[in-house]
Design a protein that fits this description.
CATH superfamily of the domain at 15-120 and 128-238: MFS general substrate transporter like domains
Shape: globular
Membrane topology: Multi-pass membrane protein
Subcellular location: Membrane
GO molecular function: transmembrane transporter activity
CATH architecture of the domain at 15-120 and 128-238: Up-down Bundle
Largest sheet: 3 strands, antiparallel
InterPro entries: MFS_trans_sf, POT_fam
Strand order of the largest sheet: 1-2-3
Pfam family, one: PTR2
């Protein structure tokens, strides 16, 4: 009798702690932070490295830069597919990090070893520079390709893997998931801020060996830390190709297109054994939209005779997976124009900064590229204020644990982004008015202080804190459970398309605004001769139209309904919920 309590106490001590939770965050965030430190720290100054160290012509260097950026934005689709279908998120992240590490090591070695780059330029009057030879370029391109492939495995999986550490069926953990996205973006923003300041300064003032070596070493340490946390992680097993399931539903619906619809949705096919591996967090419930897809779940006489053939008969859950992705499409598209507006910071806003007075003292002036510090600091500040002040206040008004829904959050971001480009246009007018102080002709420094650009940079940072994080929350929450890495890849795809849209818009405006005497809204050599303010206001108008489109889509949007078994102290409680809150814990309106 005396030993019984002691035995019970020992049994409790042997009970392993639940996997996942807050304890895993440092290991996961370290991986994301170092990836951003590496790609931004190198990418921000990449054009300088290629032209000054490898002696590439400017156009060739620019093409190398855009090819790398485009590839790194598309590879997340491949990484997400492998994670959701076969490898799982942990092993995909680990393997991708190792590939990234090899790529960064190759770039670092090319900066350290004289044999991997051409000799310095001849200091004579002709300044003859020998370009990198085929072997040196091969090392460069191979290293960049490995870095792009590595980024494709890290970017879509890290954010989803971190959110996976919180059990959606446990109300105590599910309530923390929305906060995770704020923390994730804060860590990412802080890493970018460190890259565009400290790492770039080291590259310019200490040397490229250290400038690339620091991110490479940081990546190595993060891989060790990420692997060390393996016993603590909550790992969700891959359940086969999600794209195969989507195609099966489409084929089955097409093959039964002539079959009459059922009056009662309860007659549609359900199979707990088939759906079990892909619906650990809960079953998707039937929705009334896109009823033609429901035909894939109608049981015919032939289906009743044969064993289930997923190319002819699919469950309601699998049909609703496809519906969920289709419903997400219009909201995904709405984010493209915001990225197009945001992209101008690295193009025309940068050119504005170069033409303005950047002196802090008689001997020191701010680098034009450092103006992005205003964007990063305003974004980080907004995230903190949002998490600590805005959400508690909004929670009292709405009753939602997250304060407002992600659709509301995205809407606020759209409005602030509209203000950013509107303000940018008026600042450009002010900038050009000060140009005559220095003669007005040529791309000369104008008298206006560069700090006049701070409001538009800050507004873009605030907009990103609302819109981009809301976008992440939306993709993770509304994507089918077994496709969340793929959904995170859609976030990066929207960024890629937004940048391509910016290129297309600039090309069209430059072509169709050309006038007599070489006049143009976007001149090649001198902003003072152009009408950049018109371009900013054109983007403002496009954003207003896009915002109206978004409001329509958000109002019509149907949250995925899900049947969740909520973990309670006395057991479990199953219920069908409109998944406006992560994990289906809270009900949320469909209206913005």
């Amino acid at each position: 009798m005396v030993d019984a309590p002691m035995a019970q106490e020992k049994d409790q001590q042997r009970t392993p702690r639940p996997k996942g939770g807050m304890i895993t965050m440092p290991f996961i965030f370290a991986n994301e932070a170092t990836e951003k430190l590496a790609v931004v720290g190198f990418g921000t100054n990449m054009i300088s490295y290629l032209t000054t160290q490898l002696h590439m012509p400017l156009t060739k260097a620019a093409n190398t830069l855009t090819n790398f950026g485009g590839t790194a934005s598309l590879t997340p689709l491949l990484g997400a597919f492998l994670a959701d279908s076969y490898a799982g998120r942990f092993w995909t992240i680990l393997a991708a990090s190792l590939v990234y590490q090899v790529g960064m090591a190759g770039l670092t070695l090319s900066a350290i070893l004289p044999s991997l780059r051409p000799p310095p330029c001849d200091g004579g009057g002709g300044k003859i520079c020998q370009q990198a030879d085929t072997g040196q370029l091969a090392i460069l391109y191979l290293s960049l390709a490995l870095a792009a492939v590595g980024a494709g495995g890290i970017r879509p999986c890290v954010v989803a893997f971190g959110a996976d550490q919180f059990d959606e069926t446990d109300p105590k953990q599910a309530a923390k998931t929305w906060r995770y996205f704020n923390w994730y973006y804060f860590v990412m923003g802080a890493s970018i801020l460190l890259a565009v300041t400290v790492v770039v300064w080291v590259q310019d003032n200490v040397g490229w060996g250290w400038g690339l070596g620091i991110p490479t070493l940081a990546m190595f340490l993060s891989i060790v830390a990420f692997g060390f946390g393996y016993p603590m992680y909550r790992n969700l097993n891959p359940v086969g190709s999600p794209f195969t399931r989507l195609v099966q539903v489409s084929v089955a619906a097409w093959r039964k297109r002539k079959v009459g619809a059922v009056a009662d949705p309860r007659e549609l096919y359900r199979n707990e054994e088939i759906d079990g591996p892909i619906s650990v967090g809960g079953k998707l419930l039937h929705t009334k939209q896109m009823r033609f897809l429901d035909k894939a779940a109608i049981v015919t006489e032939q289906d009743a005779k044969d064993s289930p053939n997923l190319w002819r008969l699919n469950t309601v859950h699998r049909v609703e997976e496809l519906k969920s992705l289709i419903r997400m499409g219009p909201i995904w598209a709405a984010g493209i124009i915001l990225i197009t507006a945001y992209a101008q910071q690295n193009t025309f806003s940068l050119q504005q900064a170069k033409s303005m007075d950047r002196h802090l003292s008689a001997t020191f002036q701010i680098p034009a590229g450092s103006m992005s510090v205003f964007t990063m600091t305003s974004m980080l500040t907004t995230i903190v204020v949002y998490d600590r002040a805005f959400v508690p206040l909004a929670r009292r008004l709405t009753g939602l644990d997250r304060g407002i829904t992600f659709l509301h959050r995205m809407a606020i971001g759209f409005v602030i982004s509209i203000l950013a480009t509107l303000v940018a246009g008026f600042v450009e007018v002010k900038r050009k008015e000060s140009a005559p102080a220095h003669g007005g002709g040529g791309q000369q420094t104008v008298a206006l202080s560069v700090f006049w650009l701070a409001p538009q940079y800050c507004l873009h940072g605030v907009a990103e804190a609302f819109m981009s994080i809301g976008h992440l929350e939306f993709f993770y929450d509304q994507a089918p459970e077994s496709m969340r890495s793929t959904a995170m890849a859609l976030f990066w795809t929207a960024i890629s398309v937004g940048n391509y849209m910016s290129t297309l818009l600039v090309t069209l405006v430059h072509k169709f605004s050309a006038g007599p005497g070489g006049s143009n809204w976007l001149p090649d050599d001198d902003l003072n001769k152009g009408k950049l303010e018109y371009f900013y206001w054109l983007i403002t108008v496009l954003q207003v139209v896009n915002f109206v489109y978004y409001l329509f889509c958000a109002r019509m949007y149907t949250y995925k309904p899900i049947h969740v078994e909520k973990k309670l102290e006395g057991g479990v409680d199953g219920e069908g919920l409109d998944n406006g809150e992560l994990g289906g814990i809270e009900l949320a309106t469909n209206k913005v």
